[in-house]
Amino acid sequence: MLAKAKGKKVVVVGDAGVDIIVHFPRFLNDERTKVEYKTPFLIGGGTAANTAVALARLGIPPSFIGTVGDDQYGRYVVEDLRKENVNIDHLIVDPETNTVGVFAFIDERGERYLWGWPRTKQSFQKLDPARVDFDLIKQADWVHSSGMAIVAASSARETITEILKVAHQAGVTTSFDLNLRVDHGALDPAYKEAVLTILEYCHYVLGSGAEEYYYLNPEADWRATARSLVRADRTVIARMGAGGSLAYAAQEEVYAEAYPVQVVDVVGAGDIYNAGFIAARLCGWSLKESIGLGNAVAGFSVTRESARSSPRVEELIAFLQAY
């Protein structure tokens, strides 16, 4: 169903790490004497890496640009991306940095509590521009990145901005997932400025409705803020979970409903949505069809555990046929 996208050159830039899933003990009786323990498990993570893997599973294996440490987690990332058919020729292994593992503690209600470690010399915040192949960027059909890697003032922030600028100026389609990280109810001014600068080089901006667009202008309705980011060559996508998704473009505004699924785990759903949207646009699908496919791949993913639950093409077809 996505055959037209095969052979397209996609580059994903940003963070790659691991997720460590730890379930709280579940008590089986009121006396709390009988307890069920689930075995913790390790799985690939990172917002940009999640999108890269989801694209590869849809038959569009991308090249990945980012940094991991020369450590146990970093080696896991290398093998995981290779296994998922993501091109890691441009993945940097830097022994001076630490690959981040995100511990996801899950309580008996399914709520998640996330903690990233180590807290220092985090690999995703480092991206040496001298080690980036800008010819790869200029020759791509699409370049995508994520806001997770630009949260802190860092070489990653500067280099990702430059990558998107070079791609945009070369006529390459670019997209950016906000992935905002908000402390104390407001965006750090320098961080906000960095985000807005990057958006100048993006054809598509993706974010989570009220959870992200609101913080770009807390004094306005988030929908008005999303619309304000639209340009003649820039479309803004708002993901709303069970509420579906919206697309704001210069000439149209479209909406696509979410799929009525039984939700197990929403972590990574936005990253996976991005892959579905990109795949659809690469196939020449309409804007409404494209956000609809984003909803579909995200809908499939939330019925399973972990951020690496994106569908392969045959699974996506079966999912769509069921609805």
Automatic annotation (TrEMBL):
One of its GO terms (molecular function) is kinase activity. InterPro entries: Carboh/pur_kinase_PfkB_CS, PfkB_dom, Ribokinase-like. Pfam families: PfkB. The keyword Kinase applies. Residues 8-310 form the Carbohydrate kinase PfkB domain. It comes from the Bacteria. Keywords: Kinase, Transferase. The keyword Kinase applies. PROSITE patterns: PFKB_KINASES_1, PFKB_KINASES_2. This is Sugar kinase.
